[in-house]
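Appendix B.2, paired examples.
Example (i):
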Amino acid sequence: MKNFIKKHPIVTLLFGLAALLLIQQKVVMPLVYEVIKSDAFLVDSNDKASQLPISTQLTELAFAHCNTYIKSKLDPSIAIIYPDKPINAWSLGNYQYVINAEITISSDPSVSGIKKYACRITYNNGDNQDGVSDFDNWTIDGLSGLSDI
């Protein structure tokens, strides 16, 4: 066998590739299709995803909670002016939201600048809307655009 491999390395390589493709097609892919057909990754909630920007009570609360989080992370000497509404808000489904907004920041009364940010936030209690206004029931999954402040 070692002699064959040394004499015919290209044939051995082709045979190995064919064996890998056959295993993938006959063993791996049928398992993948079974997992896809199952409900293993199905999350059933009343909050559906939207590819278009939306404005709902939950997106407004998510926007307010993102602003609260930003204020808690910045130096108290920095003055922040928040707009009434975000630029855009998207629902990712299952009570996960992406908020795109801008704030006016000023560390000096004579100098101010507008900063755009994106905040990904999740409401942790799912379909139970009782604690939706409590910041402790939300998780900030990420914030970008404000790292240089």
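Example (ii):
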Amino acid sequence: MTSPITAEARAFVRNRATEVMEYTCRITRRSLPEGYDEDTLVYTPDGLAEVIYEGVCRLWEVSGAATVVVGDTDIYQQTTQLSIPWDTTALIMRYDEVEILTAPTDSQEVGKRYEIQTVAKAGELRATRRFEVTGVM
């Protein structure tokens, strides 16, 4: 069975969705694990990061923070959605890190970091690559 949705309709929807992406972001993946190297006696807090994607994106409305208690400390965590253009060739995976580089409509978002939690899939007319992300405040 062929899809009732034409290639022109898909292209139109995807172009319109990309036009509203006002932010730019960088998505990276850690290539070395975080931790202590017993051979060199060096602790690497971040490891090395590989840039998976850098370009336009859309950060959806950020929800109010939820509180998570870790030990005696309250951690505030926000969850939202992030979209990047459909035609990107980057393979985004869970735990990849997102950094907001520019945000013309909300300067408070610049420099914030989020972690990819889920990758949305399926649907005949998916307009963007969409991900659920969390950020720690």
